[in-house]
Design brief:
With about 350 residues, this protein is mainly alpha-helical. About 60% of the residues lie in helices and about 0% in strands. It contains 13 helices and no strands. α1 (about 1-25) crosses α2, α5 (about 130-150) packs across α7 and α6 packs antiparallel against α12 (about 305-320).
């Protein structure tokens, strides 16, 4: 009670003292309500960062999987997390899409068609808010699984998503280490699905918070697992680390081929059902094979700072980073050797 009162007072003070004057000065008075909600989610983001730091950071110091080889890596990942959690980008996409979908459903009603709502599938579902919340969480996670799996199937998409996997010092802030364009695509995709199944704005905000807190735990550099049964109910740090493992989590059918294991975002059941689960007791080192120096890899550059990572991600997406995959590089070398051998025979 004391916390909620203090939170409400701080939200009102920030809005009235800082945000509202700016909104009116900029001539954006029609967005006053959205600005007030934005302040609320900015404060929620701060609370998230504090909770993560107070709980996961001591655990990383107490039971780490590996020692950090680059102290700047964690700070750079924190920049991503701060932008993601404090910028309310995910919620902004949802609130932009919501009126568009409202207009669309209004057109459907005029044609005598009722829009779909997941809560209407069972009678009295509205009387069980916790059950409704879990239902939405499971359904959204199902679609998130397929989005994540698609990121590992298409070369241009992997060019963006590989930024997330290039962190060899994975830590509690690494969940939000993503290319901005990839984040935008995912937020639009998840927002559309949430609206399509009837998720309300307040529900969606809470679903987002719960999901991203769990995902921060998954990426933490902590030697933690949930046991034989628990590992199959909720994605653990060990289970997700296998997804980030070099040559395991994002490769299949041979070295360098896109694919992999453990794509589930929250619930491993999707990996189990669709044959992509890998349960292993080992805590793997993380990264991408082509980051490694020759002969294991090709020393591909993914950038060390925020802007270099974003620029290189765009180049990888467009195939403009001047890099050949190890598989292609080997084929080129073999072709050159054959050509050299034929030339020697003719000479």
């Amino acid at each position: 009670m004391i916390f909620s009162d203090a939170f409400a007072w701080l939200q009102a003070w920030i809005f009235e003292s800082l945000v509202q004057p700016f909104v009116f000065y900029a001539g954006l008075g029609e967005f006053t309500e959205q600005a007030f909600e934005g302040v609320e989610w900015f404060l929620i983001g701060i609370c998230e960062l504090l909770v993560l730091y107070m709980i996961l950071r001591p655990l990383e110091a107490w039971i780490p999987v590996h020692r950090f080889t680059d102290s700047y890596a964690r700070w750079n990942d924190f920049i991503y997390t701060a932008l993601h959690r404090l910028g309310v980008f995910t919620l902004l996409i949802f609130f932009v899409l919501d009126p568009v979908l409202d207009a669309f459903t209004g057109m459907l009603r005029l044609e005598g068609m009722n829009p779909f709502n997941l809560e209407n599938l069972w009678p009295d579902m509205n009387n069980h808010p916790v059950l409704v919340f879990m239902l939405y969480l499971v359904v959204l996670d199902f679609f998130d699984y397929w989005y994540h799996r698609a990121e590992h199937q298409f070369d241009w998409w992997w060019g963006l998503h590989s930024l997330h996997h290039s962190q060899r010092n994975m830590n509690l802030w690494s969940d939000n280490r993503n290319h901005l364009f990839d984040d935008f695509l995912r937020d639009v995709y998840m927002g559309l699905i949430a609206i399509a199944i009837g998720v309300q704005p307040t529900q969606y905000a809470l679903l987002v918070v719960v999901s991203r807190m769990i995902q921060s735990l998954q990426h933490a550099n902590i030697r933690v697992h949930f046991g034989v049964i628990g590992e199959r109910l909720l994605v653990s740090p060990r289970y997700h680390r296998a997804h980030h493992a070099i040559g395991i989590g994002h490769e299949s059918r041979g070295e360098g081929t896109l694919g992999g294991h453990n794509f589930a975002v929250l619930f491993p059941v999707w990996d189990i059902v669709f044959g992509t689960a890998l349960f292993n007791q080992e805590f793997y080192m993380t990264g991408i094979r082509d980051q490694l120096p020759p002969p294991e890899g090709s020393a591909r550059e993914y950038g060390r700072g925020f802007w270099s990572q974003q620029i290189l991600g765009c180049k990888r997406m467009l195939g403009l980073d001047g890099h050949l995959s190890k598989q292609v590089h080997t084929q080129v070398q073999q072709a050159q050797q054959v050509h050299k051998h034929i030339s020697q025979e003719h000479s």
